[in-house]
Amino acid sequence: MTDTPFDLVVRNALVATAADTFPADIGIRGGRIVQLGEGLGAGAKEIDAAGRVVTPGGVDAHCHLDQPMEPPVRMADGFDSGTRSAACGGTTTVIPFAAQAKGQSLRAAVLDYHSRSEGRAHVDYAFHLIVSDPTPTVLKEELPSLIAEGYTSFKIYMTYDDLKLDDGQVLDVLDIAREHGAMAMIHAENADCIEWLTKRLEAAGRTAPRYHAHARPMLVEREATHRAIALSQLVDVPILIVHVSGREAVEQIRWARGHGLQVYAETCPQYLFLTAEDLGIDDSYHGAKCVCSPPPRDKANQEVIWDGLADGLFTVFSSDHAPFKFDSPEGKKPEGKEVPFRHIPNGIPGIETRMPLLYSEGVLGGRISLNKFVELTATNPAKAYGLHPRKGTIAVGADADLVIWQEGERTIRNADLHHDVDYTPYEGQRVKAWPAMTLSRGDVIWDGTNFTSKTGRGKFLRCGVPTLQPRRRHG
Length: 475
Ligand code: DUC
Ligand code: ZN
Ligand code: ZN
Known about the structure:
Protein name: Dihydropyrimidinase
Organism: Ramlibacter albus
Largest sheet: 8 strands, mixed
CATH superfamily of the domain at 58-384: Metal-dependent hydrolases
Structural class: alpha/beta
Keywords: Hydrolase, Metal-binding
Number of strands: 18
Bound molecules: dihydropyrimidine-2,4(1H,3H)-dione, zinc ion
CATH class of the domain at 58-384: Alpha Beta
Strand content: 15-25%
Domain Amidohydrolase-related: 53-444
Shape: globular
GO molecular function: dihydropyrimidinase activity; metal ion binding
Number of helices: 12
Radius of gyration: 21 Å
CATH topology of the domain at 58-384: TIM Barrel
Order of helices and strands: EEEEEEHEEHEEHEHEHHHEHEHHEHHEEE
């Protein structure tokens, strides 16, 4: 204990962690939480949170910011606007992707991504890697050294010509994850099935955005999910299946868990709040706004995803923010054209709406507990990617990344959001809560009305190894 006053006390909070909900004042010094308890002494500054729930700042462990794209397509958000939008929606840590192009060294991809992020972020950030070219040098030299330097997770793709790995390559990469304790994230969709279906749809003249969903039915996700599980079982390494969309993939993951395999899963708001109908019930190009992969399914599948969030099937809830403007030659209309679905940039924005949507429909809608909300949006992503306990919780020693929630009805309007995208897929959606205040390392960066951060205050974070559960020891 010291007599030094706190820099800041958040008083009369109803603190929610992944484990407990309790009343407390939060004493902050030097950007960290230094004391928790009732009746703390005075701070140099004080915030009265009476009557308000206070959660850890969100950790959005799957978002894409200024990821290099094939011209003319360009992501609408870089680290400045992307982390601004994150902060205004209660997210204080983001983990986007340093993506290796085929033929590029992984180290070069990381250096390039640092040059895109340096001095631009408003909240703290780490990098996942995307491994698209697992050469012997990447496997034996670059990956091990990057993991040791704090890039401890990587995504691999089972689809997309420019990214996908064959099964042998997946095994090679998983083997490195096992050896070095890294976390492998897997995009599970069967590339050949998608290509076969896409060609048939194109031959029939079915190229409108809505046919994107026809080209990627649940079967292709189910098959690849099962294969990813089998490959991870062969190597005996944990994996995390990203953006799980519905029943068939969920069944595979339940099967794996039932067999004692360490298979983690992520889902995203689009699988709770959108359906394939949002890609169009006719051939309108507006459906391009909701083209993402896997595609949103139907209402029954939304319920399956809700059940999985409530019962522990899902470990993390991420936005998969992949921001492309709709009415732009750099976005959903490449070179100003309404293109066949195959060529529509894949992904939707959602970094700002992730936390409010889940808080509203999940917690206030009675589907998940407040503690489960914290676990899914902050604690587990921090553990899965080696940032816990610095991030993802409210505890002595943790960074003072906090969200003070305000309950009350409002309607999501793109005009009120802070990304650089010209639409939100959730336009008109009613929500029941929004962050009244977001603090990052003790700084108020969103006060419910104004964004009050300074560009470049966000720091790069080196990740430790995942701590979701102890790794099995191999004899
Ligand atoms: N996968 C992602 O994770 N994000 C955007 C598009 C995709 O296929
Ligand atoms: Zn993906
Ligand atoms: Zn993604």
